Amino acid sequence: MAKENNNQTHWGFVTLIALAAGMAGLLYGYDTSCISGAIGFLKDLYHLSPAMEGLITSSIMIGGVVGVGFSGFLSDRFGRRKILMIGAILFFFAALLSAFTRTPGELITARIVGGLGIGLSSALAVTYISEVAPANIRGTLSSLYQLLTTIGICVTYFVNLTIVNLHSYNWTLFHGWRWMLGIGSLPALLFFIALLFAPESPRWLISKEKVEQGFNILVKINGVKGAQDEMTTIATAIRRDRNSTLAKLFQPGLRRALFIGIFLAFCNQSAGMNVIMYYGPTIFKMAGFGGNSEFMATAGVGVVNMLATIIATTLIDKAGRKPLMMTGSVLMTLFSLAIALMFGGNSGLILLFCVFGFVISFAFSMGPIPWIMIPELFPTYLRARASGICTVILWGANFAVGQFTPMMLSAWGGKMTFIFFMIMNIIGFLGVWKFVPETKDKPLEEIESYFMPKAK
Questions:
Q1: Where does 320-347 have alpha helices with state H?
Q2: Where are the transmembrane segments (predicted)?
Q3: Contacts of 46 (CB under 8 A, 6+ apart)
Q4: Contact between residue 374 and residue 109 where contact means Cβ atoms under 8 Å apart
Q5: How many whole angstroms separate alpha carbon 12 and alpha carbon 19?
Q6: pLDDT tens-place string over residues 332-357
Q7: How many Å apart are CA 194 and CA 256, to the nearest integer?
Q8: Cβ distance 72 to 249 under 8 Å?
């Protein structure tokens, strides 16, 4: 029995670690969906223009870009776990503040603070998981972040639906939306508590010469023999990269990894999923839904998204990253076209099923996989900072989606808006096919060597 313990992965321990870090997805998921319920009432209460409507929705991404930009540098200095905990604290207070704001300006400020918290934790959570997880299940465990994101989205849609059905329209106009935003403090609190029981990243500890602490955590994850093998690989990579700097990221080799990471981050947002997440009720209302049925339809989207992501976690380490992204991009292209064609007719139910198809396609491809692959592309000494750079692009694109979607829907209508995202998905397919490598089952250090400049 001792021999078995020395060689086998300790599944329970490593899964609990991944779940603790992945709860950052609950924050991301809650924010993605709570504003979709509140924004219609905020628009009526404050008589918002499409541009201001977009700014309230996208303001959290302003803080997110700043948080992501600093998360890598801060976590390299102070550790992954501490920065994740700071992110949870910031979002906790921002959610409470959002519920008590009196003007659009105050709400935008509170959401920027919340974005700072999510920005600190979003990319870093997956980086942390990738540094802890064994190679053969790294994709599955990293996808827990996306799974928890979709659980947060689904739960929040039902919270929104419950709130709008509690009382009259006037009560929701003045009070209900405050509950939608303020309840976000609960997943932040759960995230903080979970991190109290999680260890620091063993790769980070070893890189900071805290070898014994790092080794002990690796033993808990992989057993003694597995930990010894990991230590050898990690130590070799650290010696090779000891005198390296951030400038190396922009040199041949890793520059290609950075380009791929930025491209995947862009595809995660340009696919168009957050158009549905942020403005689902608005879109369904434009398509003919009414009497709060737009909130029911959006809740259905949340359920489909969650179930599809559960299935996706079983596929990523079997089917591979690249085939799933290419398949998902093709399907999202077709469903975007179908959604576009449904606008302007009396095909509300058909449009809903087309949206379901789009959501399922995203959930097993461009939803979880960019989050998984981006940390995989970079060496330990650059992983957090490089992932942060890529996620700045992701959050920037997220800001653009949140800011400009109301303006696109107002100026172009639903049909041309989804034609635009159809074109974006075609670009995504071509880029993945041409440039993105497969990382399934490969140790992080082997992936790192793939991007090293070849000796002449």
A1: 321-342
A2: 12-30, 50-71, 83-101, 107-129, 141-159, 179-198, 257-280, 295-316, 323-343, 349-374, 386-404, 416-436
A3: 52, 103, 104
A4: no
A5: 10
A6: 999 999 998 887 666 778 888 999 99
A7: 36
A8: no
Distance CA 268, CA 394 (A): 7
Cβ–Cβ < 8 Å for 85, 120: no
Q: How many CB atoms lie within 10 A of CB 212?
A: 10
Cβ atoms within 10 A of the Cβ of 248, count?
17
Q: Express each pLDDT in 217-237 by its tens digit.
A: 888 887 788 778 778 877 777
For residues 54 and 398, is the Cβ–Cβ distance under 8 A?
A: no
Q: How far apart are CA 35 and CA 394, in angstroms?
A: 19
Are 395 and 64 contacting, i.e. CB atoms less than 8 angstroms apart? Answer: yes
Q: Give CA–CA dist 336/283, Å, rounded.
A: 13
**10-200 against 245-455: fold identical:** yes
| Element at 282 (helix H, strand E) | helix 273-286
At 378, phi and psi to the nearest 5? -120, 150
Fold topology of 10-200: Growth Hormone; Chain: A; (1.20.1250)
**Using CA atoms, how far apart are residues 11 and 36, in angstroms rounded to an integer?**
37
The pair of three-digit structure tokens given for residue 370, joined into one six-digit string: 């960019």
Tokens of 437: 């490598």
Residue owning tokens 């960019």: 370
24-46 helix and 11-22 helix, angle to the nearest 10 degrees: 20
Contact 269, 394 (CB under 8 A): yes
Q: Domain spanning 245-455 has what CATH number?
A: 1.20.1250.20
pTM, two decimals, is: 0.74
294 vs 161: CA distance, rounded Å: 9
**What is the residue whose two structure tokens read 């009720």?**
281
Query: pLDDT (tens digit, 9 = 90+) per residue, 20-34?
Result: 888 888 888 887 778
Is residue 182 within 8 Å of 95, Cβ to Cβ?
yes
Domain boundaries, the chain: 10-200, 245-455
Buried b (16+ CB within 10 A) or exposed e, 147-184: bbbbbbbbbbbbbbbebbeeeeeeebeeebbbbbbbbb
Q: How far apart are CA 64 and CA 430, in angstroms?
A: 28
Exposed, middle or buried by CB within 10 Å (0-12, 13-18, 19+), for 29? Answer: buried
Q: Whole-angstrom Cα distance, residue 94 to residue 182?
A: 9
**Sign of the C-alpha dihedral computed for residues 72, 75, 80 and 82 taken in this order:** negative
